[in-house]
Amino acid sequence: MQQYSSLPEPNSQVDATPTVLTTIQQLQAELWLEHSLSRLQNRLNDCLVSLTSNQQTVAGEAEIFQTVVNELNSVLNNTKVAIALVEPQKKVGKVCFVPTSTSQHSSSLMIEGMVKKKKKLRLRLAEEIDIDDLQLLAQQEPPGVWQLANDIDGVIGWLIIARTPVESDANAFKDTCIQITPQLLTRAVQQCVTTITQLRKVQSLQRHCQQLETINQQLERTNQLKNQFLANTSHEIRTPLSSITGFIHLLIAQGYEPSKERHQEYLGIIQSSSKHLLALINDILDLSKIEANQLEMQWEQVDLPTLCRNVLLLLKEKATNKGLKISLELDPNVNTLLADSLRLKQMLLNLLFNAVKFTTNGSVGLQVKLKNYWIYFTVWDTGIGISQEHQAELFQPYFQISNSVVSRNEGTGLGLVVTQKLAELHGGRVEVESELGHGSRFTIVLPLKQKCETEKVEEVEELGKVGKKAKTEDISRTSQSFSKNNYFPNILLVEDDSDNARLIQIYLQKLGYQINLVNNAEQMWKILYQQKPAVILLDIKLPDEDGLGIIQKLREHQQYRNIPIIVQTAMAMKGDREICLAAGVNEYISKPIDLPLLASLVAKNIYKTFYRNH
Length: 614
Description:
This protein is an alpha/beta fold. 52% of the residues lie in helices and 17% in strands.
């Protein structure tokens, strides 16, 4: 009898159909996976393009999270999706994103798992979830949550999956999909994190671009101000220079005669223009010194009533020419103030000249009041006033208000900036009140007491008294002594600038001194070999040798060690005076030269030498 085997033959088709079906279902599931991920990526790409073009920030990430939740919710059957976010250093997360089809008023969906106390987690919007519970759910198989994390920020949030138990419908395809769902979620999380990282990079670049644009705008504004400043400064400097050179030309052409009234008028204009030119240069230099922290303050007890009256006297001519009234209101309790009198005067004049400049009729005044250990210097006017927009720019360097009152932009646009910074150096501030068409009020607020040591203040005051006394007494006293002893002091003047040298020579010769003028160090040494001067007037910047080096050589040489040395120099920055004194000079005076002060210093040193030797 023939026997048949119960086993199928090799390559038999009996078991082929289930294998083929399984393969097809697997391929369908993989296609479903790739299709779902591709769709999610397309949604995220569209979202990213939209967000970056609109330059959204925090709202951008929220839109990305919501897109992920909606897409996963649509492809996962019997599953609910949510995202919980965690603030830094917090131990509790909060559900911030659920599918848009699920309102916060609908019944919440529970998720069970191995969490503390075996409690159920709610996926309701704004529900709080412990981080420890989320970490436990992430360790389960299959996981209940996935971390949204990157290398820079760490954990951004948590993707939470809640599956609803359903009876099997014997759908092998769905079962296969469920098996590869963790793979779908893992890759979806990667897509989400990558999109957020890209968004943050784009936003960072956009912020940098905005910052660069802001910087470029500031640079452009600065460049405009610089050009405006250079144009205005050039114009302002050329104006007084034109008067100086023009009237000097007239004096030379006509032959200078002191008795002629018009020649005295010319000299007055030349002097006024020179002072104007010097004021312009000082504004520029003062601001540079202040910003470099190189401005020296000369503290002293200032007689405020006297200073204020003197300031208004300087203003009187300009105000009278415009038909303006000037008023001064002094608090009877205001007497003295510890301040730099020169700088205080400069601040008040800056404000007062501005008040006159922008006032066509009415009054200009100065009010000084004492209030709670602060002194308020208020300069007011009945002029055109200043808009709120312009008030915000008043204290920017080189800024000038265009107006119809002034025919041209006078000044450098630095006066108010310098005033504000000088007030700050005094420990105070500047306040502004103004309204278009109703005048302005600028107030300098200074503390009644400065943080200065009493001994230093007394020393400064004593030196000031000595200097003033020297100006009035030393010259006459020394001249009388010299004439009695038939002594005519010889001064060695070392100055390479011919105009300055000629000026000093003429002035000192009129006072009875003999002047040997040289313009370099080589000539100076030749003169010294021949005779010993009573005083050496030395410029620091010489063409052939450094003045400080010359001073050191003089002090090291026995023959010249005791000769008084007075330096007259353009070195006028903070510390320059101390450098010169440390090198061994007796006196220091900065350019432009104050001739009476120079004469006082010369007389004082010659007087000492004369009585030491006689």
